[in-house]
Amino acid sequence: MTLVLRKVSGAAWVAAFRLRLHPNQRRFVSAVAAPVLISLLKATARGKNCLPLAAYISERRMIGFLILSRVRSFDECWLDHFFIDKYYQGQGYGREVLARVIELARVTFSCRFLSLKVADMNDRAQRLYLNAGFENTGMRSGRQLIYRLKTQIKRDEQRRNE
Fold it and tell me: Which H or E element spans position 40?
């Protein structure tokens, strides 16, 4: 599978608005336009600590969207508004995008943790995150569960293990 993550800018925002949710996901997200618009506003407000990304399987075929934000004071990144277009779900793209986002958070942003929120009734997404190594923190934000992944071990822990 040839999958590329690229920063969303310019005309790519228009393409992001064209992505569609699977009918089963409509109860978790009101519409595609809402998360994409929210992401655009967050990216504008947060500047370099906020990276809106699109997943492509060819030069021009956008299949998914997400936003990766770095919380500097906590050495943590947050994954928000992650979804794959309804026509490309169930083909492993979500798993592949998630793996690349984890690596991006770890290597590019040097984040020790990657956190996200997932709807408490979205069993399919919860399985995806648990299979990728995320843990349910037991905390909630409204009807959403907060999951967290440790992307790096502390330097002193690395030294002890060497």
Answer: helix 33-46
